[in-house]
C-alpha cells in the first residue's frame, strides 16, 4: 500500500491554494454570494489554469488527471467557494465525463473542447418536483418527432441552469417501459424556445443560481441524444459513483479549510491567560476535527484509487460520501465552536462553510440512499470483507 500523495499532487494542491487565495479571496466570494452574481471571471481563470480540462482527453483540448488528483482539485475548489464548485462540478465532472464516455464522435468534438476552455458549461437536469431519490418516477417527457424530440415537463434544483450554455436533461422517452427503463439523456441548448428558467432563493452559494427549468414544447435535434435510447438510467448510475467520490472530496476541502481557520485562531486567541488551544476542551475539538479529516480523506482516496484501477466502486463511493460529508458537518460545527462569536463574522469563511456543508449530505443521492446502496451491495455478496 502506498499512502504517499506524491510530489506532483502536493504541487498541484499548492498551486491551487495560491491561485484561489489570489483570484477568489473570501471577501470576494462573500460579496458575489450576497449579490448573487455568477463568478464568471473566476470561472474563466479556472479554465485558463486548465482546471476545466481535468476530465477531458488531450485530443479534445483537455489535460486529464487521475482520480486522486481530481479529488485534490475538488477539495481546493470547494474550499475556495461553493459557488465555484457548483458551477464547475456538474459541467466538468458529471456532464463532461458523460459525454466523453457515451457521446458520439460528433458530440465529443462539439462539447468537450468548449467544456475544457470554459466556453461551454452544462447544467445537470435530473431532479424534478415529484422525482428526487426515486429516479423511476421521472416524468419530463421527450417524444420523437421526425429528426427531433419534443420535450415537455419541469426540472427543479438545476444548478447553473440560467448561466449554462446547455442542460443535460434526463427525460422519459418511453412511457410504457417500466421504472428506469424508459429514460434517456438529451443535450439541450439552454436558449431553445420554450425553455424558461427561474432561480430558487436558497441558503448558500447564491452566486451560482439553482433553478427551476420549464420545458414547454421544446424542440431538440435527435442528434443531441446522448448514448442509447432508454439507456439513461444505466448511464446515470455509472456516472454517479465518481460523482459521490467527488462530493466526498469537496466535503474534505471545506473541513480542511475550517480546520486551518480554527487552528490558527486557537493558537492566537487568549482567554484566562493562555492561548485557547491549551484549554483541553478546545484542544480536543481540534484533535477530533483532524481525526475526522484524516479518516475522510483515506476513504475518499481509496474510492478514487479504485476508480483509477477500473475496479467496482459502488460500495466504496457510498462509504466515502457518508463518512466525509457527515464528518464535515460535525467538523464545521466544532470549528465554529472553537472560534466562538468570531465564527459568525463574514470576514472568515466559516459561516459560509456552515451554510454550504449540509448540501453534501443531500446532493449526489442523499446519505440515506447511500446506506441503501451499501446494504444492497452487502446482500449481493457472500463474503463480508469488501476491502481489497
Ligand atoms: C442546492 C442544491 C443544488 C442541487 N443541484 C442539483 C442539480 O444541479 N441537478 C439535479 O438534478 N439536482 C440537484 N439537486 C437536487 C438533489 O440532487 C436532490 O435534492 C436529492 O437528490 C434528493 O432529492 P429530494 O430533494 O427530492 O429528496 P427526496 O427524494 O424527496 O427525499 C426526502 C427525504 O427522504 C429520504 N428518502 C427518500 N427515499 C428514501 C429511501 N428509499 N430510503 C431512505 N430514505 C429515503 C431522503 O434521504 C431524504 O431524507 C440540488 C439540490 C440542492 C438543494
Ordered list of secondary-structure elements with their pairings:
Blueprint: H1 7-23, H2 26-35, H3 40-48, H4 67-80, H5 82-102, H6 105-117, E1 122-125, E2 141-145, E3 148-159, E4 166-172, E5 183-189, E6 195-199, E7 210-221, E8 225-226, H7 232-268, E9 270-271, E10 274-275, H8 280-309, H9 314-339, H10 350-357, H11 359-362, H12 367-379
Bound molecules: flavin-adenine dinucleotide.
Flavin-adenine dinucleotide (FAD) is lined by residues 90, 124-127, 132-133, 157-159, 202, 210, 359, 362-363, 366, 368-369, 372.
Q: What is the CATH C level class of the largest domain, in words?
A: Mainly Alpha
Question: Helices and strands: which structural class?
Answer: alpha+beta
- CATH topology description of the largest domain: Butyryl-CoA Dehydrogenase, subunit A, domain 3
How would you write the strand order of the largest sheet?
1-4-5-8
Strand content: 5-15%
Q: What is the CATH architecture assignment of the largest domain?
A: Up-down Bundle
List how many beta strands DSSP finds.
10
Elements, N to C (H/E): HHHHHHEEEEEEEEHEEHHHHH
What is the average of the pLDDT values?
Answer: 96
Q: What is the 3D shape?
A: globular
What count of domains describes the coordinates? 3
What characterizes the major β-sheet?
A: 4 strands, mixed
The number of helical segments is 12
Radius of gyration: 21 Å
Low-confidence stretches: none
Provide the list of bound ligands, each named once.
flavin-adenine dinucleotide
